[in-house]
Write a structure and sequence with these properties.
The protein is α+β, with helices and mostly antiparallel strands. It folds into 3 domains: 183 residues, no CATH class; 117 residues, Alba-like domain (Translation Initiation Factor IF3), CATH 3.30.110; 69 residues, no CATH class. The chain is 27% helix and 20% strand. Strand 9 and strand 10 form a beta hairpin. 25% of the residues are buried.
Length: 522
């Protein structure tokens, strides 16, 4: 436990849902009570080719400082402070029994010494080296125990003894990042496999082998100018924090309990294919979260209406976001569309759409080929960046573009449907006709005379002659078809089914001769 409760103490509380996030709270939060926000938040990059940990403000999630290196186990790391910008070198001492790290702060040398056994959780003591005088202990870190979580305690009364140290807040942030980097190095030493360590990059994506065109290099955090209503996601960004920040920008400023900025438009930007997918996830969660807000927290539009939901517009970027800033007198060549400023009047400024994102007319449909089409290379499928617009009202600029794309999609589907119908209506080869009927094989066979000299019809029935003899002929045909004692008629019907000429058999030849001898047949 802490030595003195009156001293400034930061408790390290890892988040259960996000292993890469550690909240640093001045007091241990209690369940079932309203707890204040954390003082700081540590966020380490996940699956990044380079080691990087950022220190964020617990309330506004603004990046205050960061520490980075090629690997967490490197002997030299750089702590970068923001506003004002200042770099501090953190170096590991060699030829010592205990692991020690040194840093310089305002002409004072600080020494971080690991305490405890090598197999036990690490503890660190921070001292100011003042040879030949004894060192001054200014901070200590102790690991988690059964009674209390891990904590960092800073001895303000010892820091006040050093007159050269005037920036105590900067020293505090530097010590927090220095101890966090030492803890990360020991964690990576115990968990060396990418499968058991979510912070290590997959094999083959190390920073030494990565190029500027690789997805991991594109996903590295870059410094770009942002407007107040813009959010840029990096590997250090936690999706839950980004969603909460977006909802805070969109909430109405009239709600005293949960006051927001009352903006009508929020833009979520990301660079790289992996971060683009994370930006889409964040935008969808913001859309759902805004829909569940109470009516009083949604605010009102310029026309006085209350927005019910957010309109989401996605624009992929063909050029990377990290471009050198233009010098004085030169126009900007950035591919990022200009973000609209918050409306100050009843007329909303129009969003300038870049030429790179203009819809192109559909290309002519290529003719089908028997050879397989070449598979596009992964470089052509990579996404340089993405911008997701979340607006409380419809944006005419994007609505017109989406209407054009929908019309082009309908035309393409209509052409495909017409092509399929034309293929189905093409004449196909006629199937082989079956026997019988007007187009059967019996239609092409010459008529065979039956007993009595009558010629059968193509369908096997005997046509009735015109005139007065029709009744007698019909009676004879009916008698012939109904009579089962006539062997010749039965044989003829059987041979007709087999497509065999009756004259080729003795019985059929005799029946044919009888038919030719009949006067009625002639």
């Amino acid at each position: 436990m802490a030595l003195d409760a009156a001293l400034f103490t930061l408790h390290f509380l890892p988040r259960q849902s996000s292993p890469s996030i550690i909240d640093l709270c001045s007091s241990i939060p209690t369940t079932g009570a309203h707890n204040p926000p954390p003082t700081y938040t540590l966020s380490r990059a996940i699956r990044s080719p380079q080691y990087s940990t950022a220190l964020l403000d617990g309330l506004s999630l603004t990046e205050l400082a960061s520490v980075g290196a090629l690997l967490a186990s490197d002997k030299r790391k750089v702590v970068k402070l923001i506003n004002p910008d200042h770099d501090v070198d953190l170096a590991r001492k060699s030829n010592v029994l205990k692991p020690q790290w040194t840093l310089q702060w305002q002409d004072e040398t600080f020494l971080l010494t690991r305490e405890g056994f090598p197999s036990s959780p690490p503890g660190y003591d921070v001292e100011i080296v003042r040879k030949p005088d004894p060192p001054i202990k200014v901070a200590m870190y102790r690991p988690e125990s059964k009674r209390s979580p891990a904590f960092l305690q800073i001895f303000d009364y010892n820091i006040d003894r050093c007159e050269k140290i005037t920036d105590k807040r900067g020293l505090e942030q530097t010590l927090v990042l220095a101890i966090a980097s030492c803890l990360d190095a020991e964690y990576d030493e115990r968990h060396k496999g990418p499968t058991e360590n979510i912070f290590l990059a997959p094999p083959g994506t190390q920073s030494g082998n990565s190029s500027s065109n690789s997805p991991d290099a594109q996903a590295a955090p870059v410094a770009i100018p942002l407007e107040p209503n813009e959010i840029f996601l990096t590997p250090l960004s936690e999706p839950a924090h980004a969603v909460e920040h977006c909802l805070g920008l969109l909430k109405s400023g009239s709600d005293v309990a949960d006051r927001g900025m009352g903006l009508d438009l929020v833009i979520v930007r990301a660079q790289g294919e992996e971060m683009a997918r994370r930006a889409l996830t964040v935008a969808e969660r913001v859309k759902v979260g805004f829909y569940r807000l109470p009516v009083a927290a949604k605010g009102r539009l310029l026309d006085g209406t209350v927005p019910n939901e957010l309109y989401l517009y996605v624009r992929p970027l063909e050029a990377p976001l990290s471009q050198p800033a233009p010098s004085a007198g030169q126009p900007s060549s950035s591919a990022i569309p200009a973000a609209p400023s918050p409306p100050t009047s009843s007329v909303r400024p129009r969003i300038k759409l870049g030429q790179a994102a203009e819809p192109t007319p559909p290309a002519a449909r290529p003719a089908p080929s028997s050879s397989p089409s070449p598979t596009p290379s992964p470089a052509t499928q990579q996404l340089a960046g993405i911008s997701v617009y979340l607006s409380k009202s419809k944006l005419e600029e994007f609505e017109a573009e989406q209407a054009l794309k929908a019309r082009q999609r309908e035309e393409r589907q209509g052409r495909e449907l017409a092509h399929r119908l034309s293929q189905q209506q093409q004449p196909q080869s006629q199937p082989h006709p079956q026997h019988g009927g007007a187009h059967g094989p019996d239609w092409l066979r010459p008529p065979v005379r039956h007993d009595g000299g009558r010629s059968p019809s193509p369908g096997g029935r005997t046509p009735s002659p015109a005139g007065s003899s029709g009744a007698g002929t019909d009676q004879s045909v009916a008698g012939e078809s109904a009579g089962t004692n006539s062997d010749s008629s039965r044989l003829h019907r059987f041979l007709n089914k087999l497509h065999v000429s009756p004259s080729s058999t003795p019985a059929g030849a005799q029946a044919s001769n009888n038919g030719r001898a009949s006067p009625a047949g002639r």
